[in-house]
Amino acid sequence: MPLENRNRSNTILVTGAAGFIGFHVSKALLNLGYTVIGIDNLNDYYDVNLKLARLEELGIDKTQALQDLNETSSSTFGSRMIFVKMNLEDRESLPKLFENFAVDRVCNLAAQAGVRYSLENPEAYADSNLTGFLNILECCRNFKVTKLVYASSSSIYGNSDNVPFEETANVDHPVSLYAATKKANELMAHAYTHLYGFESIGLRFFTVYGPWGRPDMAMFLFTEAIVNEKPLKVFNNGDLSRDFTYIDDIVAGVLATLLHTSKNASPYKLYNIGNSKPVQLLEYIEAIESALNKKAIRQMLPMQPGDVKQTYADVSALQNDYNYQPKTEVREGIAAFVAWYKSFYMI
To answer: TM segments (predicted)?
Structure first.
């Protein structure tokens, strides 16, 4: 569809649209009547079939999902969900996408995820999280995007003992490359906001879980191990706590910052987005056991390199500026994930 015929203010680019959070945000935007331009490189960091299944839920079949920008049919320009397979670090294709579609706002959720994987494949983090993010910033600058909301991470707080974590805390001591790239993203966004005037909001996500979740995260790994009667790896002998945050609460916070103006508007903002109720790891496992009605085989292990002992979000800033209020208790969220898992894998 020609740019002049598309409602720019109604068109939002979501990167990582086939990912866990990106899928849920895209679905929510479509339900609200927005046009979503989704991109994802569909890499094999985890099961690509799960990513394709998410896209199918958004109305994108496998053939469409595997098309790059040059193969995107002109007929798709009339759709409210348009998907293009693309790497963020592609310096030629990303600007062309911004040329082809009149994007008003960008929700950047694409990144090479995972703390432990950054120890094995650091180059992937430089490509996606640094070069890719720079390309997003350049496109926001050159194509007059009004607002960029992007994913940061609770991991940037490192092993801080000052809880709950506040946005004003010193985050100069990351303990993983993944965390370092997220810190870099915040600094890069600050520079571009200062220089070029568009609004940027960084969201520090705290341990997101729920239906359609990532297979490399605790909720999925624990459920899979219990279902298949395999040893469940419990790091630091279970002496860990996490601010587990249900996906619906995360989406509510993302949409609030993306679609609305804060009562304390500022060109550059950072917010924690979590449940603000840390849960001990062993308690979390017990809740999964209860939902599955099956006991875990626990393999107690030492702390993993790059991991942190606790996370705990102070969400008062997001509550104050955007009326954010997480609503989902952990046992309720775990039950919803387990129900989805059983249905998706036909257990």
So the answer is: none
Q: How far apart are CA 298 and CA 282, in angstroms?
A: 10
Question: If we measure between CA atoms, which residue out of 211, 215, 16, 228 comes closest to residue 109?
Answer: 16
Q: What predicted TM-score, i.e. pTM, was given to this entire model?
A: 0.93
Output the six-digit token pair for 302. 């030492």
> For residues 82 and 72, is the Cβ–Cβ distance under 8 A?
yes
The DSSP secondary-structure symbol of 301 reads: -
Q: Which residues are catalytic?
A: 178
* pLDDT tens digits along 11-38: 999 999 999 999 999 999 999 999 999 9
Q: How many whole angstroms separate alpha carbon 238 and alpha carbon 229?
A: 19
> pLDDT (tens digit, 9 = 90+) per residue, 161-192?
888 999 999 999 998 899 999 999 999 999 99
Q: How far apart are CA 106 and CA 97, in angstroms?
A: 12
